[in-house]
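Re: export button greyed out
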Amino acid sequence: MSSSDYKTIAKDGLWDNNGVFSMLLGMCPAMAMTTSATNGFGMGLATAVVMAASSFLVAIFRSRITQEVRIPVFILIVAAMVTVVDLAMNAWMHELYKVLGLFIPLIVSNCLPLARLEAFAAKQPALPSFLDGLFMGLGFTIALTAIGAVREIVGNGTLFADASLLFGPSFKAIELRLLPADTGVLMMILPPGGFLVTGLLVVVKRMVDLRAGKEIQMGGAHSVA
Amino acid sequence: MHTPDTLLPQPAAMKPPGLIHGVILGCFCLGFGLLLAITDRLTLDDIAARALEDRQNSLAQVIPSTIHDNDPVTDTLVMKNAHGREITVYRARKAGTVTGVAYEIYGSGYAGEMKLMLGIAADGRVLGVRVLAHKETPGLGDKIEVKKGDWILRFDGLSLGNPPAERWKVKKDGGQFDQFAGATITPRGVLAAIRGGLDFFAANKAALTETK
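Workaround output, generated via the alternate export path:
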């Protein structure tokens, strides 16, 4: 693989074929976990770790997995990686786990990792697959952080609230209050806000792509799930 | 006239299901099952230690260290509360005498059950209340957490009788405690939980504070 291929993988994952905004996958965590930018960021990072690890493993074993049993094997690998991350974080990154712990088991129900395993890792060598999982996960992180940021600013008037609980006291400085307390539109924090903001950000992404003269990649065109 | 039904799968055209697929799936299950077992073993002690630390931390917040010289986490008593639910009572002792107890209390909030830890001194005063787990709306109902507001601290030092029992309610219900702007159900649930916890202490005072 040449370096331009790696660039394509990175660009695909982060923007062109973004899991949330282009493929419309992983909608459940994208809307349920984005009540704040910090929550979205944490959920995205945990997903990225699981995606990179499971893509790498599937690519290694791809010649031994037959067509007939590939879906159960993929699910098995994703579920095993999620459990390993869950246990390891609980034991060795406990402060982070207390914030993110509830979200981690939900990664299993996210169809984005499964879609990338089927569409990419099942056919490609280990390194590109690892990078595809990583960048798709980072693109997912960007999307969730963006949705969380908009909902948090409009709904609560803050940005990156409680970031210091997630990353340590030195991140206190990025916790911003942009609007006075109690002026937020509560609905944006509640489930309808998740749908509204996700939809609007999909529109924004497509408008940017159209303006740049790009072909719009329709949701589902590159995926199975 | 007889025409063959070509829509049905023809047995001859179907490949017999290979045993090999089952073997492959089984191998992966075995391999990853082993990986999970190893991870579980490696993390078991650390996770148990973290869980103990968590419990010690939440107890330390509702039982001041000045009133005990024992380790309340290990000095426990299992009792049934008024709803028949088993609760673990942690006892703080100084020189063998019980100076305070702490136990979990439960209230129903806007989005399901809330779990709190209540600390009570031997004379029935509230030592402290802390939320352990809840699913209330972020930015609205979660002001019951001590890191998001000092609302939960206002119960310290109060007891059943101060204020009188009928005043242990939110202002909207004729009590004396503030609800939050836009959220009444959450504080109402917390107050009901604390009331229940105080009643439990009053009903079982002898059993809770007896020195064994």
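The radius of gyration of chain A is 18 Å. The button fix ships in the next patch.
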